[in-house]
Structures are given as C-alpha cells and as structure tokens.
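Cross-posting from the modeling subforum.

Setting up a comparison between two proteins and wanted a second pair of eyes on the formatting. Protein 1 (sequence, then structure tokens):
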Amino acid sequence: MLNENPVNMFYDPVLDREMVKYGYIVLPFLDENDITSFKSLYKKWHPKSPDEFYKSYFDTRIEYKEEVEKSIISIFEQKMATIFKNYDAFGGLFVVKPPTDKGHLPPHQDWSFVNEKEKWSINMWCPLDDVNDTNGNLTILKGSHQFTETIRGSGTPDIYREHQELIEKNMTSIPMKAGEAIFFFHGLIHGSKQNRTDKSRVCLGLTLTPKDSGLLYHYLDKSTNQLEQFKTTPDFYIDYAANRIEKPKIKGSQHNFEFKGLTQDELLLKIKLANQPENHTAGSMNNSSNWIQKIINRLLK
C-alpha cells in the first residue's frame, strides 16, 4: 500500500476505510433546487455550450471563475459539514462534455496537490443530469490510487500511457443520478466515454485537501528535464489553470523524483488484487447500509 493512513476527513470511519481501499465513494448530495440554481448559473455564462471538452478554470474570465467557485463552495460546504471534517475546499468549477465525436477522455490521474505518501486530496464530481454510458459518465480503475507512487503536474509524464488499452478494459463504469456526487482521490485513474446524446453533459467539480496541509504544484521543465515543486495557495490555481503550460511565476525548488511505471504483469496483478471481493460479515454490511442512510437523512433535513 502506498498510503494506508485513514483519510480522517469523514466523521464516519466506514467512509474512510472505503476511500482508502477503493479510492472513491458516491453519495447523494444536491436537491432539485440546488440543481436548478446551478443550471441557471451555467446558462448565464454559457448561452451556448462549448464545442469541446471544457473546464471553467481554463477560461480567462476571472470574474466568471470566481462567481462559479464561490457558488459551488457555498452550497457544498453547508452539505459537507455533516459528512467531512478537517478539510479545506477550493477549485469549484463547471466540467462540460459536449456531444462530439472527440469526447472520449482517456484514463488519467489528476494533478497532485499534497505529498501523497503522507496525505490524501480528493476530487468531487457532481452531474446536473443523470449520467450513464451514453452521455459520458465517469469510469474508474478501482484501487489505482494505491498502485505506485506518482507526481502529476504540468509536463510530467503519464506513467500509465503504454497500458491505456489494458486499463480501459478493466475500468468500472459509474452511472449516477443528477445531484449525486462522487468523491475520489486525485491519484485514482479515471476517464469518461464519449457523449453520444444531443445535449452537453454539465457537472460540478471541487477539490478537497486536508486542513492546514499546504498545497503543492509540480512542473517539469522540458529544457532541463528538472522537476520543480511550488508551494501554492488556492488563489494560485484560479489564475494559473488558464496558463497551465507556462512555468509558474512564483519561486519553486528542485524536486528529485523518479517517474517509474509498472510492467504489464505488475499492473495486472494489482488490478486483480484491487478487485478481489471482501469477506463481509453481516455486521459490516449493516454498518455500510447504516452510514448511507444516515447521510441521506442529514441531507434531507
């Protein structure tokens, strides 16, 4: 295991265990009023949907990004307060997949925000309409956040690139209802299929990090092949994401790290182990059902 420490970001220890083992959980989250409000906000800024895969953080309009982020955080913080503890939230954004023939998002990992040998950071993804295999729902590779140590940033190599076909064959599709939220580690391998409907798939995104952990960003300088590490704040990303190919204009430091991938046999073994069924006792199964019901009850209050 890369990091066996409990996430310690949930009040319920069962959620911590589920996250550490599988790398993700799906919870009911937004109600109909919330969904309607976010759809209106999207239409305000997008009378016409983008014609390619899009994240609002990529936009250059700072006032737009700030309004979206503030709106998402204000709603989600209220709801997350009964589920999460010891966390900070930032990076609220729209994630849009239009109906095009180039909408397949291959398996990948998100940027690293913390030292993953010691801590975890989490991505939240929440669709505003039901999602399934026809309109680009998420697919994940269970347990892949634990397969091997990686660092991800601008220009860093994808150590799984040569295994994409094998990974795609072993990914799990995650259909979701509108307003449900999937929380997954940034190191979890995930992707999404092509949107084959006539309507853009619009989702909300948010980043959670352990409280007072500090944020890290990594940039691989191609001219020197040197990995640089930058200590950052949430404000850094809302401006930098639109210029993410450029080297950050803040002081960094050299960081030594070997980008070492897995052989096909090593990867196959890890996939097999991650998908082994657990021997659940009646008590553990009841506990799992209980915390889901508790969360539903909290969100319906």
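Protein 2 (same layout):
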Amino acid sequence: MLAGTVAAGAAAKSTCHVISTPPFYVQRRMPAHEQNRRAWNRRVRERERFTEPATDEDFRDPLTAVGGAAWLGGDVRGKRVLCLGAGGGRQGPLFAAAGATTTVVDISSAMLAIDREVAHARGLPLTVIEGSMDDLSALSAAAFDLVSQPVSTCYVPDISRVYREVARVTAPDGIYVSQHKQPTSLQAEVRMSSRGYVLEEPYYRDSPLPEVQGSPHREPGTLEYLHRWEELLGGLCRAGFVIEDVLEPRHADFSAAIDSFAHRCCYLPPYVRIKARRGKNPLKNASASRANIWLP
C-alpha cells in the first residue's frame, strides 16, 4: 500500500503509523498548497468549522456516520481504504472502526494530529501521511479498494491531477466516492439581494477565487478554485473512471433565516457527491474525443 514501507494492514491494533514523505507543496513550492496548509493548521488551533472529530454517537454506526452505507454495500470490513484530503479525526477513524484498513492523506499536520489522537484514544489502527492530494507518490499503484474524499478538491488548481493520482492508486473495479463544492455556489454572492443570490464570479477562470469573509460556504484564509462541470465529471471519465451515481446532499431549509447557510442552500446546492468505479484505461485522446462530439 505504501511505496517503500510496510502496509498499514501489518500495523498492530491501536498503532497509528506516521509516514514522512517529501510533501508535494515542498517539492514544487506551490503557493496554494503552502497557504492552504497554513490555513487549515490555523483553523485547527482556533477550533473552527470542520475540525471537530467524530463523536461517540458517530462511532455507534461508523459507516452510516461517514455517509457510505448505501453506496458501499453496508460493509467495508477488510477493505483497503484511502481517505483523501480527509484529516480531522472523522473519516479515517470511522472507516477504521468499521473494519477497513485505513490510510489518511492530508496537507495539514494539525488535522492529521487529530486523527492520531482519536486513533490512539479508541485503539484503532490507522496510517496517516502528510501530503497533497495531487501527489500520491508515497502510495503504491492499485493499493486501495476504496478512495473516499470529502470536500477538498477546491483547494488545488488542477483537479485532473488529483483524478490521475486517484486512478493510479485505486485497484481495478475499485470505488472512488468524492464530494465537491458546486461551481455555481462558488460563483454566487454570500448574501441575498433583492434579486436573490446573484452570480458575481466568472465561470471560466484559472486564478483562485477572491478572498472571502463571513461565508458559511467557503473557508476564509484558504485559496480556493472553481472547477467547472466538465472538469468535475468529464475529468473523472478521462482519468479512467465510470460514474455510477451522483447526489446533491440536501441542506435547504425554507424556514431558515435569510443569508444563513440553510437558506442559501434553497437556491444554490453547495455540494455534489459522486460515486465512480475504476475502469480499465483512461481515454487515450480526451481532447479529440470531445472535439468529435456533435453539439446542437
């Protein structure tokens, strides 16, 4: 599972392996990676949103708590699971509690520290690796039966690189479950005007989104990127995956206060969740394939 190391499955119970590798953001010195690493470390120190570990209630039914019961057949015992961009003491420990041989990759050392604390406290075997989701060179090819990725691809400029790396480490017929921020939600204003939640950011862009304050839909201090639907869905197919299902987790509440997270979600669903299966090969000439598609 780990290139040049013992597999996580060889770990003794209640042991948390920490793998030291040259992280992508150090190798390539990409400003976005370093800024996001620092931002998430700060968010942990200040106990901000998405830095709280799983609760005792979550561990009573860990697979349901992690949102994977339906798509994963209700059982991951013995499965090799990669939790990608998923530090924070939730996904990794919950999958481990459900019986999976689990590895967590995250760019934030502070988020991984929460995983180690939870694993130690609950006697769970877990491997944690500090690194970026778009460079999984520390992991062997076809090492995982399942890759689970909560919302995190918005923090990298090139989602196709993430998909290629996930395709490499996913075993044939393996499952990739990922959740992303919807592009329209990232385009729209945080607060409602007389015309609703108005689009203010262009759809076609290569630069990161402007800094935001007071938004329940974005994380202040991070660099975030809008990925178009062609990149989110088409990129998966070109990397060698077959999309099996797509869901929009519902957070809408029409009785919620205006400008609240739940009220805005009535107009702009914030997330999309995708289930994809690893096929045999990626499309060999993706640009030519798109060029040959007939459009009205």
